[in-house]
Amino acid sequence: MAVAATGHVTGPGDAATPGPAGPDPAVAAGPAGRAPYGLLAPGLLWLAAFFVAPIAVLFVTSLMVPVPGGDIGQFQPALDVGNYAQAVVEYWQIFLRSFWYGLLATVFALLVGYPLAYVIAVRARGRPTLQQFMLVLVIAPFFTSFIVRTLAWRQILADEGPVVGVLQALYLLPPDGRLTATSIAVVAGLTYNFLPFMILPIYAALGRLDLRLVEAGQDLYASPFTTFLRVTWPLSLPGVVAGTLLTFIPASADYVNATLLGNPGTRMIGNVIDAQFFNVVDYPLASALSFVLMAAIVVLVAAYVRRAGTEDLV
Amino acid sequence: MSVAEPSAGPSPGPAPAAGGADLHLEALTKRFGAMTAVDAIDLTVPAGSFFALLGPSGCGKTTTLRMVAGLEEPTAGTIRIGGADVTGTPPHRRPVNTVFQSYALFPHLSVIDNVAFGLRRRGRPKAREEAMAALELVELAHCAGRRPGQLSGGQQQRVAPARAVVNRPAVLLLDEPLGALDLKLRRQMQVELKGIQHEVGLTFVHVTHDQEEAMTMADTVAVMNGGRIEQLGPPAELYERPRTAFVANFLGQSNLVPGYATPTVGGALEVRLDAGAEQLLTAPRERAGGLSGRVLVGVRPEKVYLVPGDGSAPTDEEVPAGVNVLGPGKVVDVSFAGVSTQYLVDVPGLVTQTVFSQNLDQARVRPGDLVRLAWARQHTFVLPGDQDLSAGRAED
């Protein structure tokens, strides 16, 4: 994704940009030569320094073994795949839980986000002030820190808080029931925190929806629901795919929500990696866990995008 | 439910109509806030006819069409199709299909799926085969698997009517579907659409601002202006005998001159022009429309001959019987247009008069020449005199 973004910076427009009106027309008219690559350089350097190099270091680390007789945190280069075996065998349940929570958060974010995006993009179309107001409401939470917002959720879901009180009054929660330190709270936090990433791409896709196509659907005997299913939904799929990816990937790798809203039984893989790096100080295992997580996400996302039909994306 | 009849199943859509149905509009009105887009129009479109709603942009023709389709809710009035009141029926339950101005083809579906869309919604068992037949009708069978985005503009233009016609709607609505085409392609599509209409025998309602297109294609033309129908009839009748200045100017061109009309003993109308009291125009009784007093006298430019003269008004002896003469005037512009030449003639006291003359012989008239305008009296028409004589003129 970072690569794609960098590529945009030096699009064809830059290549066509003629140099200063020099006296040599051949230079001005000809291909811009190396200039576009020069413009790519900052992005490439950035990626090399902060993406490629750390990944390489991480990979090398993931194959290391402890120095025999050494201190905690001392490792030497090796080609030990045992770290990977340990990562999978020992933590596969936590991987599964992470993806399950990520999936739940994605589904809930879609259920909440799609109608919101639809209202902003379609119902409020032609009323730019209202649209902007609603978009600000979607983005406004970003003005405060992720951690602070998650801590706020802890207050909202606290045992003495209004949500628990109401649920208990409605007998939806037993009198001794609670929400904080439960998987419900973790998934709710994940859903909330990544909701804007779901709404914005769907909003963008629905903003481009030609409403005359919706009229054409109704004109061709499709009820409003069928028209949504056959016309609106497929045409918004690029936004849905982008939104679900932007929600699922960070949500399943998240550890803040599980830390602040969960309990030891709701640990996610991010918590494990965090602990392995900073508490256990087992860098090779933590690195191997990171790689397994990346690989698993790549596989899941690739399968998903394939199924969703990539040809209409972008 | 008979066995032989292929049933449409438990579909929400209406059954396909066998050859179109009548369309009745009664006092149909649409207001947007304080603006009245369609002003209580009454209209009957007989089954199987090709009907054109003609008018300038903003005259309410598209709003009328959208109300028939169910895409716009009328403020007042009734819409009946084949006798059934559909005023409150949602669009997907109306036996009506629209060919949209923008085509509105579904970009995410192949051409064949676009055409089969309506059939599938009604649960037709052979949707694909029927859609294929419709594509063959517009000679696009070879494009069935492509997406609309992969077709040329002209091909998309043909998919749009196929997608509508295939459903055999009781009424087919055409919302300026040819507007975006270049002239040659437009002529070709006009012929094709007319052919389709003959073949399937549906009721077509065609909205257009192109008067030539309306006259070429439609059996009946309704000229709309300001949310009302100005005049309705077969194209030739509208053209030969317009009843308002708007129709006279919007449908083709007209030379209109104001005057005061007095009936003669024979029933013909003698009109003394405001400009130059010595000029007298005569309209035969059957073209006088029962009018007298203040009137506008009109004639179509192609009916008028230029008579070179010396600038003096003609004497009675010079004018043959049955001919109206106007002038003298000065030719101010001559423009050659292939089949004909257009002359603009300034007659003192009148608006510039237009004359089309077929290029049968060498043009002997040049700008600056003094001429008189002559035409057969039976080509004269008379309109009520209380109108703006430039209403409906193309603003160019």
What is the topology?
The complex is a heterodimer of chains A (314) and B (396).
Chain A (H helix, E strand, L loop, with lengths): L1 H8 L2 H5 L8 H5 L5 H28 L2 E2 L8 E2 L5 H42 L4 H12 L6 H11 L5 H8 L13 H25 L3 H9 L4 H29 L3 H6 L7 H10 L4 H26 L6
Antiparallel strand pairs in A: 1-2
Helix pairs in contact in A: 1-4, 4-14, 5-9, 5-11, 5-14, 9-11, 10-11, 11-14, 13-14
Chain B lengths: L22 E10 L2 E11 L4 E5 L6 H9 L6 E6 L2 E2 L10 E4 L11 H11 L5 H11 L15 H13 L5 E5 L7 H18 L2 E6 L2 H7 L2 E6 L2 E6 L1 H6 L4 H6 L4 E9 L5 E5 L6 E4 L1 H4 L4 E7 L5 E4 L14 E14 L3 E7 L6 E6 L11 E7 L4 E4 L12
Parallel strand pairs in B: 3-8, 3-9, 6-7, 7-8
Antiparallel strand pairs in B: 1-2, 1-4, 4-5, 9-10, 11-12, 11-14, 12-13, 14-20, 15-19, 16-17, 16-19, 17-18
Helix pairs in contact in B: 2-3, 2-4, 3-4, 4-5
Mean pLDDT of chain B: 85
CATH architecture descriptor name of the largest domain in chain B? 3-Layer(aba) Sandwich
Quaternary state reads heterodimer
Q: Evaluate the radius of gyration of chain A.
A: 25 Å
CATH class of the largest domain in chain B: Alpha Beta
What is the count of DSSP helices of chain A, taking H or I runs of 4+ residues? Answer: 14
Biggest interface: A-B, 20 and 27 residues
Strand content of chain B: 25-35%
**CA gyration radius of chain B, whole angstroms:** 25 Å
Please describe the biggest sheet of chain B, giving its number of strands, its sense, and whether it closes into a barrel: 6 strands, mixed
The biggest sheet of chain A, with number of strands, parallel, antiparallel or mixed sense and barrel status, is: 2 strands, antiparallel
Low-pLDDT runs of 5+ residues of chain A are 1-29
Low-confidence stretches of chain B: 1-13
